[in-house]
Fold this protein.
Amino acid sequence: MSVCETSGVGRHSAPDDDDVVETAEQRGDVLVAASGAGRHAAPDSDSVEAETATADETVADTERLHPRRPPNADLRMLREDPALRARCAAAVIVPFVLYTAVLLVIGRTGVYLIWLWIPTVTAGVLAGTFLDIAAKRRQQPNDDD
């Protein structure tokens, strides 16, 4: 008898017609009542209000810790502050120069394009950090008013 000729007990086989399939009630399993206590049941109104209040508090805390800036605020800061512009330019250029130098030193210039994401991500993180720090410094004098 080969494996294919077995009694259909495979992983993806359907039960035969003569197989007895028990229901959960016949096996004595505990069933969730139809009162809505199941996992996907609608929540109670009290819990919805509590979750809404918690979500509102979370949003307020997030906006307090990380106030929103208009999308063009970073560009305006770059135009107005030459020191910030120089730091951001250095943050973009330096990772690529260091990456190129390291690959030249170890003699692996053939993989330059494969690992190019490393200085790209590093440059973005550094420039974003410099812009965030500058934005916080601009907001501090306004908070004292």
